[in-house]
Carbonic anhydrase/acetyltransferase-like protein (Isoleucine patch superfamily)
Amino acid sequence: MIYEHLGARPRIDDTAVIAPSAVVSGDVEIGPGCQVLHGAVITAEGGPITVGENVIVMENAIVRASAANPVHIGDHVLIGPGATVSGATVGDEVFLATGTRVFNGAQIGARAEVRINGVVHLRTILPEDAVVPIGWVAVGEPLRILPPERHEEIEAAQRELDFPGYVFGVDRDTPDVMVQLTERYGRSLARHAHDREV
């Protein structure tokens, strides 16, 4: 399904194939030879999304941009089933395996691999040809690629990256942080009430 959102319609190359159960919404440009499979969602939530040539977005993957963090996907990228890319830049020939998570402001260099259930955290820069092993977390500046059992180090880096502040503009130390976050984000998402299928 193709939707106009905030007055912007997706622009999809004639050679791209969008599955009937996929959703493409808003200011999205999809290049030639792309395949967007069943259940995938590509949604521009106030910021643009550009998808290069011969990109495969597999089943139930999510690609989401925000006003603060647009998305750019390079050429010959595979985004695996159930993967999520939010407000990030992904270089050419990148492999994002099943269940990977790439967060706002992240940059993934050409030919990098994020393996099954790997994470590239907020504002993290993963260089060209880098590999995030299965289930590991790439986080921080300077970059650290850590196994999940090193939670304390990951948490310390995450705190410095300030997810609530960077993504939602909410002070993480506010006692009602989730109240402020959900109300602010909910108002933004309510703009979908006026979307039109095209």
